[in-house]
Amino acid sequence: MKLYGSYTSPYVRHCRIVLSQIGEDFEFIETDRAGSAIKSPTKRVPFLEDGNICLTDSSAIVKYLREKANTPFLPDIADYDSYCLTNTALDAAANVFFLELDGVGPAQSDYLKRQADRIKSSLDALELKNLAEKAPYNDFELKLGCFLDWGLYRERISLKSYPNLQVFLQGIKQYPYFAATTPPPL
Description:
alpha+beta, Glutaredoxin, Glutathione S-transferase Yfyf (Class Pi), Chain A, domain 2, 2 domains
């Protein structure tokens, strides 16, 4: 099994955590934007190859890995909806991040202003969730931890106004599988 990605991607991080949790042997192949454009039809990371299976989305990869290990992937619809909310916020933050690298920010683009508003309203909603303070963490909580940690790492978000999310993040940072996948310093 081969997982392609970067050590800083929150999407890849979630896959790496699940691979470690289930004890699956895998080869991690560090890939940049140019490499993913050649190897993946989505032109992004992560992507996974397992024999004849090639998956190009982190959610599909996590679901596949959970099923392979006979463990559930978000059987509760409320947790699945929270997972989707988190993924939407992460997608919006990634869009703003990459477009700002190209010199375009919310001040220049109504689309990016809407993305910035989406991030804030999502954080507001996530603050109200009943979150685990210690393991075990489900895939919604793992995705949320990856998003929050990446958002702080890339200076995309502030948790100053979100005490529940702060407590949650401090707890998940102690989880060995999460701690082992911390991105390298910038």
